[in-house]
């Protein structure tokens, strides 16, 4: 068994009312309750390919393998032919926890049309297993510590906050990237954009442009 990884966290206070969390590496015994960071999150989550102006997102869902709930290694590309909703989260992240009921509803309501939610927990395995059982997470989970953080870097954005979610079409091409908690109106916009890509009505790049405009027009969520 490999040594236990190291994770430390800090809360990012968000100007728009949603919080996102930054993560780093520190001895587990030194982990303290999250403190508010001095950084400020963007006012609106991004659906753009490269809103930050640094490295663009990959065209397709990057392949990585983490342990599933049963402890077996599983690739994120296991769900061939599905439109993926890959949600990166952690048990210590309050907006991540708030988001989970919506993700469960998306899976229940839209699984039959080919959408597949997969949670990627970058956290200690025992904490994830306990929390998933307590709240009844019923979509697949992949779990990693250091290897989970390495999976994050495959999206070309360096160190990101939590939660963040990527949406793919049914060919596993990346359509949308969303940093921060997803609210129901935003989810509807993003699901609709993926449907238009699946139908051939829009390319992924066109869908990002359309979705970004629609998301910007939504009223801000009231926390």
UniProtKB/TrEMBL annotation:
What residue spans carry the region label Disordered?
A: 36-55
Stored InterPro entries: AhpC/TSA, Thioredoxin-like_sf, Thioredoxin_CS, Thioredoxin_domain, Thioredoxin_ResA/DsbE_sf
Quick check: keyword Metal-binding in the entry?
Answer: no
Do the record's keywords include Flavoprotein? Answer: no
Q: Which Gene3D superfamilies does the record associate with it?
A: Glutaredoxin
User: Which key words tag this protein in UniProt?
Assistant: Redox-active center
Spell out the Pfam families in the cross-references: AhpC-TSA
Q: Which domain of life is it from?
A: Bacteria
Which residue range or ranges hold the Thioredoxin domain? Answer: 55-196
Regions of compositional bias (Low complexity) in chain numbering? 36-49
- This chain belongs to the protein called TlpA family protein disulfide reductase
UniProt organism field: Steroidobacter gossypii
């Amino acid at each position: 068994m490999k040594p236990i990884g190291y994770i430390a966290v800090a809360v990012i206070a968000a100007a728009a009312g949603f919080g996102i969390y930054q993560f780093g590496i520190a001895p587990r015994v030194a982990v303290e309750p999250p403190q508010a960071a001095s950084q400020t999150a963007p006012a609106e989550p991004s659906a753009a390919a490269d809103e930050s102006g640094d490295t663009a997102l990959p065209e397709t869902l990057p392949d990585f393998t983490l342990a599933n709930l049963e402890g077996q290694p599983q690739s994120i590309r296991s769900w061939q032919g599905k439109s993926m909703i890959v949600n990166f989260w952690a048990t210590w992240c309050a907006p991540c926890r708030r988001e989970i009921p919506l993700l469960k509803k998306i899976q229940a309501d839209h699984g039959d049309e080919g959408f597949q939610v997969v949670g990627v927990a970058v956290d200690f395995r025992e904490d994830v297993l306990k929390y998933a059982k307590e709240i009844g997470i019923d979509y697949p989970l992949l779990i990693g510590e250091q290897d989970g953080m390495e999976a994050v870097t495959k999206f070309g954005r360096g160190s990101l906050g939590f939660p963040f979610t990527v949406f793919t079409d049914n060919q596993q091409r990346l359509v949308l990237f969303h940093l921060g908690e997803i609210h129901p109106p935003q989810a509807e916009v993003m699901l609709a954009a993926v449907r238009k890509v699946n139908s051939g009505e829009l390319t992924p790049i066109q869908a990002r442009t359309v979705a970004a405009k629609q998301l910007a027009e939504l009223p801000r969520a009231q926390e």
